[in-house]
Amino acid sequence: MHLIQVDSVQRWMEDLKLMTDCECMCILQSKPISIEKDEQNELILSSQYSTCDNLQLLLKRAWIISTELTRIAQKLEKSRWQRVHSMTVRVNCHVRSMINEYNTFTRSSSEEMHQLEKLLIDKCSEFTAFTERCLQTEDEEMLKSMKSCVNETLTTVAQCFGQLIELVLTHEAQHLLRQIELSGSLYVTESAVSSLFSLAQEGAHLCRIIAKEGGVVALFKICRQDCFRCLYPQTLRTLASICCVEEGMHQLEKVDGILCLADILTDNSHSEATHAEAAAVIAQITSPHLTFTQHLSSFLENMEEIVTALVKLCQEASSGEVFLLASAALANITFFDTMACEILLQLNAMKILLAACSDKRIVDTPYSRDQVVTILANMSVLDQCASEIIQGNGVQLLMEMLFEKSSSGNPAEVAACERVQQKSAVTLARLSRDPEVADAAVKLSCIPRLIKLCRSPTERNNSDSVLVACLAALRRLAVMSPGGLEDSDFQQLVKPRLVDSFLLCTNMEESFV
């Protein structure tokens, strides 16, 4: 869950109310604070405004319970019975609170859910009673024999809890999808899609639940209805989230999702925001990090149309975000199928991308430059690319990318900068088989910069991948222009085996004198 990534103080502040409620529940033994029904409802629902808010509250409770169960297992391992019992009481109360809260806003619960709720409450009560007996037992041998029973009960509680949460989330996903399926109302559909997006942000497991319940089918149904055009961007954004899991991809293939995306991208009547979100879905489903894209046979049938539309979107992008999404999709497609590089060459994509890089308003982050240089690196295997690079002043751009540095120190940005340096060196190495490109690189002082990146770990942020790419580029340029290196550089960085030069550079220590 993304909740874990939130600042710890902020997490504590958010959880404080839940913890306080829990202590109240401990004292009152789950009895209502007020005998007046209206007042009780007002108290319980005071911080709940929508289905989305209710689900967030439920997920927070679930996260707390899951964390507490893990901690109980740790304390049990150390035989800290006092802590085990107090934490068991707390879990018992959290479970009751979670069930009470959920039942106040759920529309209808199945018999299976009621049975699971009752079973979980019974098991929690049994667990609490068990740990209390352990606390009152002083016989060490007896405690050792009881420990395995406590472990079994803890496992049973965890399993019941997991089953209940799975059932609840499935129930909520089903309800939201029924709203999308049955409602012709723009407002209701928008609200349901928004809640579905929030659910999908909670992680891959929830995306799998949504996909299994037909979420991808329902969302593509929206994208095929003109009356919901204003919802296309939001719907496509939700689709991109769900399609990070294999179940989502299979559903996309079954409903001809690729064809629908191609239609949206090639329809000029759609807004730029819609085209950008469609590009985001393409980027997601063609990600080289996914291992389950091979079944996207229909993608090849529509690839030329999609690539053409994405190049146009890059050319006409009004913001850095739109360009990033379109270029990311193109970059992934060049990994997905080599034919894409030939299509890009025919579309003058090299010229368009190089021109965009000179506009700091459009290509404004290392992330965008990473996508551009990825496309250049993959296209550089084609012999015809060399002349395009020369004409578009591409060697100068690659040289500039060798100086890519993070301005914020953010880990993600630093990693992006490393990728830019690495891929620009790879592109130079590939293109420098052409004497004209190699000559331009030498004139732009690429060799001294490559040497600096090899010899100075801080220049490359201690990245081994950047080092290997720079050594390869340096060796290619040295062949084309042997006079550009000093003898010591040649002897250490070019003449030895690549692995020996690599080991030499990784063991170098910079002098701070």
UniProtKB/TrEMBL annotation:
<dbReference type="InterPro" id="IPR000225">
    <property type="entry name" value="Armadillo"/>
</dbReference>
<dbReference type="GO" id="GO:0009786">
    <property type="term" value="P:regulation of asymmetric cell division"/>
</dbReference>
<dbReference type="GO" id="GO:0045176">
    <property type="term" value="P:apical protein localization"/>
</dbReference>
<dbReference type="GO" id="GO:0008356">
    <property type="term" value="P:asymmetric cell division"/>
</dbReference>
<dbReference type="GO" id="GO:0000132">
    <property type="term" value="P:establishment of mitotic spindle orientation"/>
</dbReference>
<dbReference type="GO" id="GO:0008093">
    <property type="term" value="F:cytoskeletal anchor activity"/>
</dbReference>
<dbReference type="InterPro" id="IPR031938">
    <property type="entry name" value="INSC_LBD"/>
</dbReference>
<dbReference type="Pfam" id="PF16748">
    <property type="entry name" value="INSC_LBD"/>
</dbReference>
<dbReference type="InterPro" id="IPR045789">
    <property type="entry name" value="Insc_C"/>
</dbReference>
<protein>
    <submittedName>
        <fullName>INSC protein</fullName>
    </submittedName>
</protein>
<dbReference type="Pfam" id="PF19427">
    <property type="entry name" value="Insc_C"/>
</dbReference>
<dbReference type="InterPro" id="IPR016024">
    <property type="entry name" value="ARM-type_fold"/>
</dbReference>
<feature type="domain" description="Protein inscuteable homologue C-terminal">
    <location>
        <begin position="61"/>
        <end position="513"/>
    </location>
</feature>
<dbReference type="InterPro" id="IPR011989">
    <property type="entry name" value="ARM-like"/>
</dbReference>
<dbReference type="GO" id="GO:0045179">
    <property type="term" value="C:apical cortex"/>
</dbReference>
<dbReference type="InterPro" id="IPR039921">
    <property type="entry name" value="Inscuteable"/>
</dbReference>
<feature type="domain" description="Protein inscuteable homologue LGN-binding">
    <location>
        <begin position="4"/>
        <end position="48"/>
    </location>
</feature>
<dbReference type="InterPro" id="IPR038205">
    <property type="entry name" value="INSC_LBD_sf"/>
</dbReference>
